[in-house]
Design goal:
CATH topology: Aminopeptidase
CATH class: Alpha Beta
CATH superfamily: Gcn5-related N-acetyltransferase (GNAT)
Shape: globular
Largest sheet: 8 strands, mixed
Length: 182
C-alpha cells in the first residue's frame, strides 16, 4: 500500500487523490467528521447528537486502531473513511464527506478503494438506524442489513448501549462481491 493510492488529473491543474491519512492530518479529519456529521441533526435521536459530534480525544483514540484514507482535492482533505480489521472481519469506520463535496462520488471512490484493501471475507459497517442517506449509500454499494445487530455491535464495536439500541449493522461478503467483478 502506498501513501498516495490514486491520483486523478481532472484538468486545468486540478488534482484529486485518495491517500492514506497521517498523524498530521488529524485536525483536518476532525474538521471533516464534525462538519459532515451535521447531517445527523434531526435524523438521529436527539440524546445521541451533539457538537462536536466526535471529540478530539475520541478521534485520537480511534486513530490508534483505524487506518484512515482521505479524498484530497487540490491539496485539501474533503472526505475521509476508516478501515479497521478486527477479529476476522473488516469494519468501515467514520465515513464522512464535507457537505459541499457530497453527491460527487467521493464516498463511493473511498468505499471502493477500501473494499479493494479488505483481506477478510466480511466487510461490516454500523450506522444509525434513522440515517436513511447513509443506509441508501451502503445498499447501493452491495451492503445489506444484518439481523444479528446486538451481537455484532457488542463484538466488533466499542459503543454505548444507547448507540447499540439505535443503530444497525450492514455487511457484505467480499468473496462473493469479488467473484462478481470482471
Amino acid at each position: 500500500m502506498t501513501l498516495i493510492d490514486a491520483i486523478i488529473n481532472v484538468g486545468k491543474g486540478y488534482y484529486l487523490m485518495i491517500r492514506q491519512c497521517q498523524n498530521e492530518d488529524t485536525e483536518r479529519i476532525y474538521f471533516v467528521i464534525n462538519q459532515a456529521a451535521g447531517a445527523y441533526e434531526g435524523s438521529i435521536p436527539a440524546d445521541c447528537y451533539h457538537q462536536p459530534y466526535m471529540s478530539r480525544e475520541e478521534l485520537d483514540r480511534e486513530m490508534k486502531r483505524i487506518t484512515f484514507f482521505g479524498w484530497e482535492a487540490d491539496g485539501e482533505l474533503v472526505g475521509v473513511m476508516g478501515i479497521e480489521p478486527i477479529k476476522g472481519v473488516t469494519l468501515i469506520r467514520h465515513a464522512y464527506v464535507l457537505p459541499q463535496w457530497q453527491q460527487q462520488g467521493i464516498g463511493s471512490q473511498l468505499l471502493n478503494h477500501l473494499k479493494g484493501l479488505t483481506s477478510t471475507r466480511q466487510l461490516l459497517v454500523g450506522t444509525w438506524a434513522d440515517a436513511r442517506q447513509a443506509i441508501a449509500f451502503y445498499q447501493k454499494h452491495g451492503f445489506h442489513q444484518l439481523p444479528e445487530r446486538d451481537e455484532l455491535l457488542t463484538t466488533y464495536w466499542d459503543i454505548p448501549q444507547r448507540q447499540i439500541e439505535t443503530s444497525i449493522v450492514m455487511g457484505m461478503d467480499i468473496e462473493t462481491e469479488s467473484r462478481g467483478r470482471i
